[in-house]
Specification:
Strand content: 15-25%
Low-confidence stretches: none
Largest sheet: 5 strands, parallel
Number of helices: 5
Mean pLDDT: 94
């Protein structure tokens, strides 16, 4: 298995399964979380290089979670890519201002997402 660690944060089980299968097929070490609490625990224990972050999460939203992860000075922050159904004017700007390093809208092109992930982790 590849040493590149990727965390997928999404409250939709179907989205988690799709991304997990896609990324594992590319030989990445993948973990998933359905909410901010689980994601923060994995950031500490798993130390992902990249997080694919849904912005609509129960409780703490993905933008707030990204700010918290990026603001933690105890470790080098992982790259964060917003993977979201938000596609209104200004949504990408808000995601980048929160610390996201990339922005992908749903539904996404699987091949393009795989290429983006490869560019970011290698």
């Amino acid at each position: 298995m590849s040493s590149e660690r990727i965390l997928v944060v999404d409250d939709n089980e179907m989205n988690l399964k799709l991304l997990r299968v896609l990324l594992m097929r590319e030989q990445y070490d993948v973990r998933t979380a359905v909410d901010a609490e689980a994601a923060l625990a994995l950031v500490d224990s798993f130390a992902p290089q990249l997080i694919l972050m849904d912005l609509q999460l129960p409780g703490t939203d993905g933008l707030t979670l990204t700010r918290r992860i990026k603001g933690d000075r105890r470790r080098k922050p992982p790259l964060v890519v917003a993977v979201t159904a938000f596609a209104m004017e200004g949504d990408e700007t808000r995601a980048r201002e929160a610390g996201c390093d990339g922005y992908v809208t749903k539904p996404y092109d699987v091949a393009n997402l795989a290429r983006l992930v490869k560019q970011l982790v290698t």
